[in-house]
Amino acid sequence: MQTRTLGCSDLKVSVIGLGTMSWKDCRYGVTVAPDAMPDRAGTQEVVRVALESGINLFDTAEGYGRGMAEELLGSALQELKARDQAVIVTKVGPLFSEEQIDERTCNLTAAHIRVRCEQQLRRLKTDRIDLYLAHWPDPRTPIEETASVMNELKREGKIRWFGVSNFSNDLLGAALKHVPVAVSQLPYSMIDRQIEADRRPFCLAHKVGIMAYSPLGKGMLTGKYTADHLPPADDYRHQRPHFAKENLAKHLALAQRIRETAQELGVTPTQLVLAWTVAQPGITVTIPGARTLEQVRDNAGGGKLTLTPEILARFAPA
Ligand SMILES: NC(=O)c1ccc[n+]([C@@H]2O[C@H](COP(=O)([O-])OP(=O)(O)OC[C@H]3O[C@@H](n4cnc5c(N)ncnc54)[C@H](OP(=O)(O)O)[C@@H]3O)[C@@H](O)[C@H]2O)c1
């Protein structure tokens, strides 16, 4: 597994991480039903196999299953006695339904972050968060206030590094004046290349690492979906651009090209896609979501693969 250092931090991580949002009961903003039985044993196995496969980067958020993903990740690392092997990334800020006041959807005030950070440390069963991200911008709170509380949490040892997610260049630039920003977590994949035009050049110029999320196009690029075999009709992905009706033919054609090249190289489509992702300029690491042991092992394989310039060029922008 290739490793890299995250931006200005001293965090050495595997180029392929593990996203926890696709675990059972861990969807973004979804509250777990009171009678739900979280799959503790299953997620522990997923974490164990990830570590065994060379993955040390784990991405979660308070918003995933409203704390459930943090809880499951913390329990797994505790049971496996593997806290020190892992780099934990978690995020703070989003407000859901009953928490929202005055239509504010994200709260990055110092008071809110202080309370949430303590809750997150408890759920994660640790005394420190390795990388703490502001999940979404909060236009109502001056970035100086957020940066100031992050600097305090760093001095207290509760977080090691600060990062941002889904921030514009202007807001990231403003944050950089007050606090070191190790990483910007942004959507990026072969079918979602918007950041190439603006946010990637900015991160490169300011030496901020990019952590690419949804690198598999939410499953679209894994090669397993075809026109006759799509996620179930009630799956939320049909509402996302990756699987939206108007994009389907174009994305399935790309998936077919990925399958063909992967077959030629003797690798899986997912490994090809992940190796391509971390070979792109400015992309430091990527965090595919994985639900099963097979998916984790497969994804980890992408971090051991180096693609030739000729193969990389096959998937250059049209
Ligand atoms: N900062 C943010 O705002 C933000 C937003 C979104 C995501 N994220 C982070 O990024 C992570 C990944 O994003 P994502 O879950 O949206 O999309 P993704 O990584 O592009 O796709 C994940 C999905 O692909 C399928 N899959 C994964 N590995 C596979 C394999 N080897 N073979 C076949 N299928 C495979 C699984 O779904 P099926 O098996 O059901 O098809 C899985 O749920 C999240 O877990 C989260 O940590 C952050």
Structural features, described:
- This protein is of the alpha/beta class and 318 residues long.
- It has a single domain, classed as Alpha-Beta Barrel (TIM Barrel), CATH 3.20.20.100.
- Helices cover 36% and strands 14% of the residues.
- It has ten helices and ten strands.
- It has an eight-stranded parallel beta sheet.
- Helix 1 packs across helix 2, helix 1 runs parallel beside helix 9 and helix 7 packs across helix 8.
- It is globular and about 55 Å long.
- It starts with a strand and ends with a helix.
- NADP nicotinamide-adenine-dinucleotide phosphate binds next to helix 9.
- The CATH architecture can be named as Alpha-Beta Barrel
Q: What is the CATH top level name?
A: Alpha Beta
Kindly, what is the distance between the CA atoms of the first and last residues, rounded to a whole number of angstroms? 30 Å
Strand content: 5-15%
Mean model confidence by pLDDT = 95
Q: Give me the Rg, rounded.
A: 19 Å
> Helix coverage percent of residues?
25-40%
Say how many strands there are: 10
In the sheet with the most strands, the strands line up as 3-4-5-6-7-8-9-10
N-to-C SSE string, H for helix and E for strand:
EEEHEHEHEHEHEHEHHEHH
Given helix and strand content, the structural type is alpha/beta
Q: Which stretches of 5+ consecutive residues score pLDDT under 50?
A: none
Biggest β-sheet strands, sense, barrel: 8 strands, parallel
* Ligands bound, unique: NADP nicotinamide-adenine-dinucleotide phosphate
- CATH topology term: TIM Barrel
Count of DSSP helices?
10
* Structural domain count: 1
CATH-assigned homologous superfamily:
NADP-dependent oxidoreductase domain
Which shape, going by the Cα principal axes? globular
